[in-house]
Task: inverse folding
């Protein structure tokens, strides 16, 4: 897996998620966006709430049935029992049935995937969720039972909290269970296919020398700008970009304000056609600083 | 493409039509877009209502469209510079990939597969670690036994109050016989409490901790195992001094065989994790952990299942069978049963 951030997003201050690469069994590399800590915490809180709700409901039912007949101890242990079952089965069931997501993850658009790009196996799902007992619920128990005190308990608590905080200490934000199961948690947004920006009827003509001024990076920044909703700020940014392009390529004519978008769209089309042709001839150019040819 | 007349002030107006600009990426997109849209609709449907919502013909088309999208992505990466198109195809392929290569087992199938194949195979794969864990417990047991028969003051130090249950250096032979070894069956409700407490207050937590602490290079795992042995050895010592060794062993082994088996397996799981961190071989530590981690997790999951069995044996069967010979026979049976299960189950099936 290689670590990278999208250069265009970085420049334009868009989504700041870190990217990783997985290779599918067909041998094609796909980019995945790592989930943020906050998203994962939110997803977990939702799942925790659901679990507590179910446990509480079962508590009420068991209590209503047993309170008149049997000892209180039976009720408590039965509830503990159900709680243990529900929380373990809950995560494992949903991650198997919903392709690696739970209700909380689904609301936050998160997925568990195999780190290497293989299929997500049942074994991996079970492994990463069983470890959760040690990572989350055991420290919770130790904290809740903190009244018992004792140096050993304190040390144990600190150690377990460090284990819980493991996603903060590694690049891929894996918790212990992810390490053991070989998984990562990714964000999976839905991207839409927008209309092609390339213009059909050209009014402006650019020479190859002019088009050789830029590379793919600048082309894609321009694309992002042109795709932005047309607000006042975008219009100003486009004006600035238009001025700079004209200066860079030595455009002698004037571009009136009303025609800036039209001019830039055509420049984009011509530039893309040029760069794609060059790329086809094996002369791909990453950005304006790369050597031409 | 023709040159329209609105190009005021242009410096490059040649006054004659230029050869049309051919955007290969646009042509490419026009030809394939319908397939991508179809795939997107299928994936969206399956994401929303589960993969079961797709009918047979849709299920057949999904992998075909997925591979077509992957090939489109590869082509687009080499010929297109349209950022939106590239990101869309990347995203679409990923979503379809997760559908096509998602978990294929339901919870029940997974459980059945695990019990008939995965668990015994994991046990067979971790023989060395199991031996190590067993030796750690054995060493603890021997130490606890000899310390206790040397000086019973060790009992107080070795056995925490929560486990002692009132037993200690002051216990007499008769007390142990009446209150512990041949205590009457307390009825179903009390047995269930014994069973559940057994699971949640002590052993499962210890077991899962021995496993989880394997991440700390295995030393805490070995220590915890040895400590379990110490407690056990101290109890044996206590009964040995009162001439109850065999009765105690009968009392404890009816569930103890299963329970110690489970603790050993948890410990072995922890040691598998520790080994893959300490000796990664030709992989990186993280890769190696992912390769061996699932064996380790299988051991731990199986051990939790064994704890359940042990809990049932302790809560129910032990007090119902109130003679030492019967108990020893049952524990021998459990030992043989587990031995056969781990040795033979799932051997013929594919790994």
Result:
């Amino acid at each position: 897996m290689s670590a990278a951030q999208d250069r265009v997003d970085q420049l334009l201050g868009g989504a700041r998620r870190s990217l990783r690469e997985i290779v599918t069994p067909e041998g094609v590399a796909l980019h995945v966006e790592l989930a943020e800590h906050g998203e994962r915490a939110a997803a977990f809180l939702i799942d925790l709430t659901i679990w507590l709700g179910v446990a509480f409901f079962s508590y009420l039912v068991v209590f209503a049935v047993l309170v008149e007949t049997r000892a209180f101890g039976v009720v408590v242990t039965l509830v503990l029992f159900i709680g243990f079952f529900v929380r373990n089965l809950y995560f494992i069931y949903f991650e198997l049935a919903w392709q690696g997501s739970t209700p909380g993850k689904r609301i936050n658009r998160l997925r568990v995937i195999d780190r290497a790009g293989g299929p997500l196996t049942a074994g991996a799902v079970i492994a990463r969720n069983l470890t959760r007992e040690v990572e989350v619920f055991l420290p919770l128990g130790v904290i809740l039972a903190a009244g018992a005190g004792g140096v050993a308990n304190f040390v144990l608590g600190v150690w377990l909290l460090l284990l819980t905080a493991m996603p903060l200490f590694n690049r891929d934000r894996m918790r212990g269970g992810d390490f053991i199961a070989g998984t990562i948690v990714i964000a999976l947004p839905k991207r839409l296919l927008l209309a092609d920006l390339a213009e059909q009827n050209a009014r402006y003509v650019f020479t190859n020398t002019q088009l050789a001024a830029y590379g793919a990076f600048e082309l894609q920044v321009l694309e992002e700008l042109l795709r932005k909703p047309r607000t006042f700020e975008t219009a100003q940014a486009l004006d600035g970009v238009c001025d700079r392009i004209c200066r860079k390529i030595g455009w002698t004519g004037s571009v009136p304000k009303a025609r800036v978008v039209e001019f830039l769209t055509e420049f984009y089309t011509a530039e893309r056609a040029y760069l794609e042709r060059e790329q086809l001839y094996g002369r791909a150019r990453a950005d304006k600083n790369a050597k031409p040819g | 493409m023709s040159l329209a007349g609105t190009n005021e002030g242009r410096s490059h107006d040649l006054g004659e039509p230029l050869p049309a600009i051919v955007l290969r990426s646009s042509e490419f997109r026009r030809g394939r877009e319908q397939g991508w849209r179809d795939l997107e609709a299928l994936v969206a449907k399956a994401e929303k209502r589960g993969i079961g919502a797709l009918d047979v013909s849709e299920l057949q088309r999904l992998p075909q469209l997925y591979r077509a999208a992957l090939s489109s992505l590869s082509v687009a990466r080499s010929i297109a510079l349209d950022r939106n198109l590239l990101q869309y195809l990347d995203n679409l392929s990923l979503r379809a990939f997760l559908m096509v290569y998602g978990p294929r087992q339901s919870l029940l199938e997974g459980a059945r597969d695990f019990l008939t194949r995965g668990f015994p195979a994991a046990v067979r794969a971790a023989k060395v670690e199991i031996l190590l864990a067993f030796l750690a417990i054995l060493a603890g047991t021997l130490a606890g036994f000899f310390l206790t028969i040397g000086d019973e003051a060790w009992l107080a130090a070795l056995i925490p109050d929560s486990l002692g249950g009132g037993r200690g250096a002051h216990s007499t032979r008769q007390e142990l016989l009446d209150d512990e070894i041949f205590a009457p069956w307390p009825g179903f409700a009390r047995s269930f409490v014994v069973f559940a407490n057994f699971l949640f207050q002590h052993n499962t937590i210890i077991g899962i901790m021995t496993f989880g602490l394997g991440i700390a290079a295995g030393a805490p795992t070995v220590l915890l195992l040895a400590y379990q042995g110490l407690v056990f050895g101290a109890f044996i010592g206590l009964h040995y001094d009162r001439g109850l060794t065999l009765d105690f062993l009968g009392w404890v082994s009816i569930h103890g065989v299963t329970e110690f088996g489970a603790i050993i397996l948890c410990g072995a799981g922890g040691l598998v994790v520790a080994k893959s961190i300490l000796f990664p071989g030709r992989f990186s530590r993280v890769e190696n952990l992912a390769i061996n981690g699932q064996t380790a997790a299988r051991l731990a999951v199986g051990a939790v299942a064994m704890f359940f069995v042990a809990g049932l044996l302790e809560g129910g069967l032990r007090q119902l069978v109130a003679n030492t010979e019967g108990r020893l026979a049952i524990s021998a049976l459990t030992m043989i049963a587990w031995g056969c299960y781990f040795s033979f189950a799932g051997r013929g099936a594919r790994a």
